[in-house]
Amino acid sequence: MDKDFLGTPIDTETLLRQEAFEIEGEVISHDVEGVALNRRLNGLNRSALCISGGGIRSATFALGVLQALATHPKRSANQAANPEDALLGRFRYLSTVSGGGYIGSWLSAWLSRESFREVQQQLTQRPEGPDVEPPPIRDLRRDSNYLTPQVGLTSVDTWTAAAIVVRNLVLIWLLVISALATALLLLKIVLVSISWVGATGPLSDSPAARWTLLGAGALLLLLGQRYTLTNYSLGNGEGGNQTRFVKFDLVLAALGGVFLTTWAILPIGWDARAPSIPLVLAIGVGVFFTSFVLSFRTHLHQPHNPWLRLARWMVAGLVWGAVVYAGLMLLVNTLYAPARLLALVVFGPPWLLMAQITAETIYVAATSSETRSDAQREWLARAAGLFVAAGIGATATVVLGLLGSRLMDALLEDTTYLYQSLTGGGLAATAGIALLGSGSSGEGAERGVVVSSLARVRKLLQIVGGQVFLALLLIVLSGVLDYLLLGGSLLDLLLANAIKAPVTISDANTELDTLLFGQQVDPPVSEGALLLHLLCGFVLSAALAYVVSRSVNINRFSLHDLYRNRLVRAYLGATHRNRKPNPFTGFDLEDNPLINTIWPQAAERDAPRVSRLFHVVNCTLNVVSTRNKAWQQRKAMSFVITPRHAGAADLNPRNTWRGHSGRYTGAYRPSALYGGKRGISLGTAMAVSGAAANPNMGYNSSPSITLLFALFNIRLGWWLGNPGLQGNHTWRLSGPRQAILPWLQEAFGLTTSDRAYINLSDGGHFENLGLYEMVRRRVRLIVLSDAGCDPDFTFADLGNAVRKIQIDLGVSITFPHLDQLQPRIRPGEKPSTAPYCTIGHIHYADADGGGEDGYILYIKPSYHGTEEAGIRAYANEDERFPHDPTADQWFDESQFESYRSLGFEIVDELLSGIPKTVQGGDLEAILSALSQQLKATDTVVPMRAASNGATAAE
């Protein structure tokens, strides 16, 4: 039994061996590995058909390509090929991305339901008569508006889609708002506790309590400093990582700041009595001295004098005390009591963090002559950066949480300003989403390279839209919580109570008292009463957040189901002859086969071999928060779903070198068990591969986009268990058991590959052609249909694929005649004689030290003015044809037929120009003949695609 069924994932080399056996019946020993395995795979002379991303545009163009491949080699001018001779049946792999997956899944589902002979005949002719189109093609044409088949405002399909979007958005917002409310209430509880304990609570006059606060704060600070002293001078490969620093240094320092701020509330916040400077300096020196003593053993093994270092560290303690005292005197001498309280609560903990940074800066300067001081400075600089980020974030959060209701009061006093603020924030967020445009498509060519005024506005809205909306949401939510629980602004209540001003709580709050405590009580005015109300609200909010997080499925209540169900109905349902749709919804659950059923099972291997392509569905595993610095631009890795396995080659790092990820073993799980009780379905794989709009989108990801998309539930991606070792207990589940953590990871770009669950999205967010995984498999003969949106022929997607293949797989690819391909002609221009395709060369022999090089037949749609009349007419109407934007997923009849006809005409004419003696041969002979034809007409100097594609993409 394979390891993957026993709970351990199989590695990439095992996957490649198993695929060789599944497809070719070739048994490759486990002793054959590395480049020897690559050469063995190369020797199988396998072929692949790759269909690029590009939504329905790519799918419809590729339909014509499939029909032409099924037609050739023709028996005569008017007779298509015999099924056993058809070129379509000679491919071993079908590699699809995004929109290419629509038509690829349509073909795979069809071949799993009918024989190749039946499929080929219906692709090439009309068996039931010239006026009766085969149902699988007819239904595609009928459902070219697959998202809303009946378009228009009066269409039930339109309103159904709108209802789904609104329902899911409400549920996600219920999750988000309950979680944010819980966090805000916890913050308010901390703020009230600081004031209550420090100034007016029962312990405020207790010397023992005050010394306890001081001691607890000092203890937390010195424990954090002990971590710094223990780790910052360790050698390479030693010490804790960033996560441990946050847990054992930053968090402790922040909590220490809270305790010390509480200790300072009464003497400083209200009485303007700053502690003496000797006391503050003594605290600093004492904390720093004790932290050094606790870490003294570490310094004994360092190449420096530990006593001299102790003296310098104590000087840093004096600096810490001086900075803290300066801040206290600034409060005492410049602000009155209420303002002093507010400033102390808001800026107290961040000021202590700044004092820590200042002290460490002085220490760094004093130790700059020591051995390995460069490494120590870098460590302390990174620590300072995290301290600064935490201080700014904490200050902003406290301001919004404490002043939210006060800001709401100010806004409510001027309803016009309130309306402008709310609509302005909403419009900023909405405009940011609307103007993302091509940035979410997953196609490199659609990311835009022209810097214009509109582009700059779009960029600005993308940057600030999410933050503006989130800030407004926090302000409004904070104000609502204050009025619901306290009857007024928390800040006003705290200040008024402290200065004994006459303040009353609203009648609504009295009713809340009756509801919570069962009797009528006087309105509370003390911090203790406020704290009780906040605690009750916190418990209710936390309970609601927990229930919603466990009840709302992060996968089911995104846009994914709406998208997938309609794709399945249009593309997979088109091949389902015995379809029995629900009479009300029009959906049939049997339209969507499990992906492991689209390939012959073991019992079928002894039967006459069927012509069926092994389908590789290319997706993206988002690692926006990757620790691999080399992936900071791509922010993603390739993830494949096949009829046998699902996983990624870049999971499970094999080793590390100087902190950088080394080789990866890969991790794959059986598709029959992965992602659900019955395994993952073909429809889910197809929809995930086409999940173009998602908070995390590989190289298209940016902080504001992730936040905007998450807040507005623009999520087509899918969460699944990690196929790697981290997912040993989750890989068979259909998604996370709770929703809030995955949502937070999406919203703040924290997706990675080393947790129990992973986030998958459009394959084009990594590589949009499906070429990458075929080169990994050493496929020698590749036909590639690239119908991505690239009206200017920048070849961005091709350059991206070639670049990643060179970097990751060590295989170079050249396109000597790439410049022969030309964009469409414009109205009034002369017809073009440029080719629609070119030949690329895959240099396997250079990479593997032997074996045969491979060929790529690269097909790219264009309009030359020589096409048939139907195509010409449509091209004259639509100047963007054949590169309509991917956002256009609503094709009408003429648009659908024009793209299909163009795909068929390009490949049909291409293959018709090859001598019949060659057509009857294998794919290699055909590609070789095409290469010779291109050489005969070549007028440009050959260039390597690795540089040409990359330059064009940039």
From TrEMBL:
Keywords: Lipid metabolism, Membrane, Transmembrane, Transmembrane helix. One of its GO terms (biological process) is glycerophospholipid catabolic process. This is Patatin-like phospholipase family protein. Pfam families: Patatin (PF01734). The keyword Transmembrane applies. The chain crosses the membrane at residues 170-196, 208-229, 250-270, 276-294, 315-336, 342-367, 379-405, 417-439, 460-486, 530-548. Residues 49-125 form the PNPLA domain. InterPro entries: Acyl_Trfase/lysoPLipase, PNPLA_dom. GO terms for molecular function: phospholipase A2 activity. It comes from Allorhizobium terrae. GO terms for cellular component: cytosol. Signal peptide: none annotated.
